[in-house]
Structures are given as C-alpha cells and as structure tokens.
Design goal:
Shape: globular
Radius of gyration: 23 Å
Strand content: 5-15%
Order of helices and strands: HHEHHHEEHHHEHHEHHEHEHHEHH
Helix content: 40-55%
Distance between the termini: 40 Å
Number of helices: 17
Strand order of the largest sheet: 1-2-3-4-5-6-7-8
Structural class: alpha/beta
Number of strands: 8
Bound molecules: zinc ion
Largest sheet: 8 strands, parallel
Length: 445
C-alpha cells in the first residue's frame, strides 16, 4: 500500500511540472546541434583542473609503482599497444618528440629524457607533467611514495592485500602461472610492513596479528596515506563472507607457524582479516579502494572480479560511514556498478576504461553515469608505464584527453536532448573532473 501511494504522489508531481517552460527531454538531437554544443563546452572543460583519483605515477624502473607485476603472458588491448599512433601524439604534446614512431632508436630519445629527470631526483619533472595536463592533485597508488613525487600534488594510496597472505602460500602460488608471480610479491610487501613495524616474526595469536595490521594501517596514514587499496580481485573473489572471530582465531593458531591451510580455511581467514581492515579504515577515515574491473593476465576471473560481489559489504550498515571507491568503474560491468553508487558512501572512477576504450565509447558510459549518480563519479587516469616507449606520462595524457573529450561529448548530447543547460553541464563536468574527489578526500566541504 505504501508503495502504491508513493507512486500516486510521484505522478501528481510529474503532472504539476508538465506545464513548466522547459520541454521534456527528447531522444534524438541533430548531429550539427550536438557538435555546436560540444565545440563551446570543450574549451571550458579543458580549463577545469583535474583531481585524479587513481594513478601509478612513476619512472618505469621503480618497482614501488605497484604491489604486483605484469603477468608472464599478457595480451594487451588494441589501444594500449605501442603501435597506437595516439602515443606518438602524446609524446609530441608533452615533450615535443621529433619522431613519428617508436622505432627503438627513436624511443631512446624519450627514455633518455626520462632517465635524466630521474637522475636529477627533484619533484619538478612530475609536477611539470601534471601542469601540462592541468591536473591539480593526483592520487598515487604505490607500495611507497617516491621522493620524486611532490607530496603537495601526489597523495598516497597504499596496498593492503598482503595482510591477507601471512600463512603458507604454497597452494595459492601454485594455482596458475599468474598467481606464481603475484603471491610472492604480496609476501614481499607483508615483510616490508613487518620491517616497518619492527615485527620479526608473525605474532603468536590472532589478537597480535590484528593489532599489527591495525597499527601498520594507522602508521601508513601518518606517512601521508589517504586511502587503502585492495587488488584482491586478482587473487580471489570479491565476495567476502562474515565468519565469526573464533573460526579465524583457530585457523591462525593452527597455521601461523607452518603447515598449508586448505583453500576453504585460507578464504575464511582472509574474509575475517578483510573485515578488520575495512573496520580500521573506517575508524581512521581512510577511503577503501577496490580494483573492480577486468584485470591483466591470462587467468583473471571476470566472475570473481565482478563488482556485485561486494554488495553485502557496501550495503552493510556497520560500514555506513566508510567511504568505498570502485576503481575502474567496474568495467565492463559499468551499468551494474553504477547502481552500487546509489549508496551515499560508494564512489567510482573512470580510470583504466579511459584508455581501454576509445572516447566514443567512454562517452556512452559517462553519459549513463551522469544521468544516474553524478555526485559519485570521479576521473581517474590509471597512468602506468606500459613499455619502453609508452610511459606513465603518455598514459596520463591519453586518459586526460579521452576523459575531457568524452565528457564534453556526453554533456553536449544531453544538452542537445533538452536534459539541462550549458551551465548545469559545466557544473557536472567539474564534479566529475575535480569536485567529487576533492570533497571525498576532505579538500573541499
Ligand atoms: Zn591502477
């Protein structure tokens, strides 16, 4: 009954609005009209300073750029291959690159420039890249912040998956060749955290392990961390159950000093520690980032990485004050994903998709998101060095140019269809490119 009367009320409201001056939005607009609006929106959108929610700003030989490495047999999407002429355009725009291809002897020109900047050691080089792209602030998702990144411009997002792997990982590592690369790197990060906290061996009981986990997260925040990041989708399902503490305690007691836990026991233990991490992040007001999209490698499970797996966590009232960010827009499940952001503490970004697909397709995705929850969507570059020629600099450029043109096109269509005015369109563009992230990380109220 209650639902029925709400519907009745809603239709009265629609009838009351029908007489207002602006006509109903229409499904088709002329291409000439869309082009005209695009041409006047784009220069204004280009002037909006960007807040980049996700990047791996780095020199290519810095192993702290990520907590994992490229899997052994990666097959790259078309747009990210070094044959993509857009990367030459990027190098020309950023550095005045004098060649039209990345022949090894030409690519050396770029590599030498980068090596000189790295040797110089200052922060001017990466600040300069941000300036050229009109990026004001940029999150850097790395194992540790680098001395060559200016902490005023680059804020640290640190990895926490390693806390899920303190036990004997023989069976985890053996699951497939990709895990054979990934898991030893997680063990390395865990040891690094143990060194940081002056912990020489795993604590004797779960209480000790939990306090080590909580303390490391708190200390990383003191070092400048603004968010924690889970790459868990690469290793396991994003579905986390809610096991009782005594179960996790028994598993830890049995295996912390040796022995190989069964898959089921390991998963139960991880599900529990995951919740300790979420709880601690919430208490410290650190946002929680999830890789929630396709991933690289030959064994990445689309089913395990599907963002809907997180629904029970995102909608858990215990975490209502914790801010969650679904990195990479859940791509390719972007429409399922956007409905998760109906919850006020759930956000997303367009990182990775911005260079996986061309702007014409990114436009369609952004148009859908803008029409649904424009307060929760953010720009992200996922800038990353892909090979000798294509560095994080060029992927920054590609992601920024794609996002600015795609959002201008999405908004131009919506304005032409009669959804809203130019003014509103520019406000929505500012929210996407800057304000939503600045507000999430407490830089604007
Ligand atoms: Zn990334």
């Amino acid at each position: 009954m209650r639902t029925l009367s709400r519907i009745a009320f809603a239709s009265t409201a629609v009838l009351a609005m029908a007489g207002s001056a602006r006509p109903q939005a229409k499904p088709l607009a002329s291409p000439q009209e869309v082009q005209k609006i695009y041409d006047r929106l784009l220069p204004q959108i280009d002037r909006i300073p960007i807040y980049d929610n996700h990047s791996h700003a780095t020199f290519p030989d810095d192993s702290d750029m990520d907590a994992q490495a490229a899997p052994p047999d990666e097959s790259s999407v078309l747009r990210l291959r070094d044959t993509n002429p857009e990367f030459v355009a990027a190098a020309k725009a950023l550095f005045g690159y004098p060649y039209d291809d990345f022949q090894p002897e030409h690519a050396k020109w770029l590599a030498d420039k980068e090596k000189a900047a790295e040797k110089d050691g200052g922060t001017a080089y990466w600040d300069g890249i941000l300036d050229k792209l009109n990026i004001e602030t940029c999150l850097a998702n790395r194992v540790a912040l680098a001395p060559y990144l200016d902490p005023k411009r680059f804020h640290w997002v640190f990895f926490v998956d390693s806390f899920l792997f303190p036990l004997n990982n023989r069976d985890q590592t053996g699951k497939n060749p990709d895990m054979g690369v990934y898991i030893p790197l997680q063990e390395k990060v865990l040891h690094r955290y143990m060194q940081q906290e002056n912990v020489s061996a795993l604590p004797a009981d779960l209480a000790g392990y939990e306090s080590f986990v909580r303390q490391t997260v708190a200390d990383n925040q003191k070092k400048g961390g603004v968010a924690v990041k889970f790459e868990a989708a690469y290793f396991r399902s994003l579905y986390f159950s809610d096991p009782p503490r005594d179960k996790a305690e028994a598993i830890y007691a049995k295996y912390h000093a040796g022995g190989v836990p069964s898959n089921e026991d390991y998963r139960t233990f991880q599900d529990y520690i995951f919740r300790v991490l979420i709880d601690q992040a919430g208490k410290l007001n650190l946002s929680v980032h999830f890789h929630s999209a396709v991933g690289i490698g030959d064994y990445f499970s689309l089913r395990n990485g599907h963002p809907l797996n997180l629904e029970n966590v995102l909608r858990d009232p215990r975490y209502a004050k914790t801010k969650f960010v679904l990195i990479h827009g859940g791509y390719p499940y972007t429409l399922d994903m956007i409905w998760l952001t109906a919850a006020k503490n759930v956000y997303t970004d367009s990182s990775l998709m911005g260079y996986y697909v061309y702007p014409s397709e990114l436009k369609n995705i952004l148009k859908q998101w803008i029409s649904l929850y424009p307060e929760r969507m953010m720009f992200g570059s996922d800038a990353f060095p892909f090979n000798d020629a294509v560095g994080a600099e060029e992927t920054f450029w590609l992601a920024v140019r794609s996002a600015r043109t795609a959002v201008a096109a999405a908004l131009a269509e919506l304005v032409a269809e009669g959804a809203f005015t130019d003014e509103k369109a520019l406000e929505l563009a500012r929210m996407y490119l800057h304000d939503n992230a600045a507000r999430l990380y407490g830089e604007i109220k």
